Amino acid sequence: MFSFVNMEKLLEEFRTKQAYLPIKWKAASGRYITLADLKKIKSKFDRFYQFKGIGESVEERKIYQIKIGSGPIKVLAWSQMHGNESTTTKAIFDLIAFFNHYKDHEEIKKLLQQITLVCIPILNPDGAKYYTRVNANHVDLNRDMQRLSQPESSILRKLAKEFQPDYCLNLHDQRTIFSVGPTNNPAVLSFLTPARDEERTIDKTREESMALIATIADYLKPELENKIGRYDDGFNINCAGDTFQSAGIPTILFEAGHFPGDYQREETRRYIFLALISGLAAIANDNTVDFQKYFDLPENQKLFRDVIIRNVDFEGSLVDVVIQFKETLKNGKLRFVPIIEKIGQSIQEIGHREIDAQNEKIRIAGEELLIENVVVNKIFLKSTEIPIKME
């Protein structure tokens, strides 16, 4: 019989980076993850797991599912519903590599006798190719779950109807702006049990997903204390999570956020992987904490910006300059373009990076004026050149 006690021991051992690195799927890294990356892992593990084409995107790129395990508890997961949200896809690759690496481990064998995981690693391969939130028809698939106007949306709904999952895992990335409540802690991970109706009724289905989130958060707490947030649960039936939750399937939204200094989201990737494996273990053994602990997670706020330059002398007044990176795909490479978002006095947001101008003027390389909506790759403070652009 599957023993959660023994699995907990394995999870504790696996929490360290040293244990993670041997199974990390190193062929996929950074933020630009496409179907080409999926095909690499498919060619490596196709003989162990069931990769299967289940349809095509608008531009006729293949959409794959992978099936792992043979147990009675069915879990459906999908990633890159938004093409520019790839961290969870990397974590799925790590999960595939993990199960293969530990395929002879007694507890992992028992786990996979309890659950069947069906996952779509890249639901929006066109958006992944162009690094866009939307698909090739400029439709947000996460607002198309009722109309089903797009082939990708229809593929997900069709798979769910055929598979009849007991749980749904909706895997996304969030922007760098989110904080854990009104604090100076970035939301490295965020979770949500979506609403099932306008009244945000808490029924047994939602309680199950709340308990699972709380269990995952408990497992991650030693490393991510005060860095796990909770999304607002406003109801929108057009969204995937709300659609499946309203159908009576416990559904969890995972959001991969910003770990300090980790714009490529390689640290966050590891935490998403740990969240997935700990969540699957809890599902397999029906071992979760009290669902009320879900509400201990603070609700996210939008308090962060990428760079803030404080105490700038601007036309005789002291101002703060807020810079936000715009993610731009150029020649197959993702670039983080720093753009001045706003200039103002005593700005309350928190910078992931803060620079104190010490009441001096600053000069922007290539620009005569300090104005909003311009690219600022580097600044000059007195005679010192300070790079802003990330290489």
Give a short summary of the structure:
It is built from 10 helices and 15 strands. It has helices at residues 4-14, 17-20, 35-45, 87-101, 106-114, 125-130, 151-163, 204-224, 240-246, 266-285; strands at residues 50-56, 62-69, 73-78, 115-120, 167-173, 189-192, 228-230, 251-256, 304-314, 317-330, 333-344, 350-360, 362-364, 378-381, 384-387. A hairpin with a 2-residue loop joins strand 9 and strand 10.
Low-confidence stretches: none
Biggest sheet overview: 8 strands, mixed
Task: Tell me the count of domains.
Answer: 2
- CATH class placement of the largest domain: Alpha Beta
Distance between the termini: 51 Å
Overall mean pLDDT: 95
Number of E-state strands = 15
CATH architecture of the largest domain: 3-Layer(aba) Sandwich
Q: Tell me the structural class.
A: alpha/beta
- Globally, the shape reads globular
Q: What level of helicity do the residues show? A: 25-40%
Return the CATH topology of the largest domain: Aminopeptidase
| Helix segment tally | 10
As a percent range, the share of strand residues is: 25-35%
Report the C-alpha radius of gyration, rounded. Answer: 22 Å
Order of helices and strands: HHHEEEHHEHHEEHEHEHEEEEEEE
Report on this structure.
This protein is an alpha/beta fold and 391 residues long. It folds into two domains: 4-296, Aminopeptidase, CATH 3.40.630.10; 304-387, Urease, subunit C, domain 1 (Roll), CATH 2.30.40.10. Helices cover 30% and strands 27% of the residues. It contains ten helices and 15 strands. The strands form three sheets. Strands 1-2-4-3-5-8-6-7 form an eight-stranded mixed beta sheet, with helices on both faces. Helix 4 packs across helix 10 and helix 8 crosses helix 10. The relative contact order is 0.13. The model has no long low-confidence stretch (mean pLDDT 95).
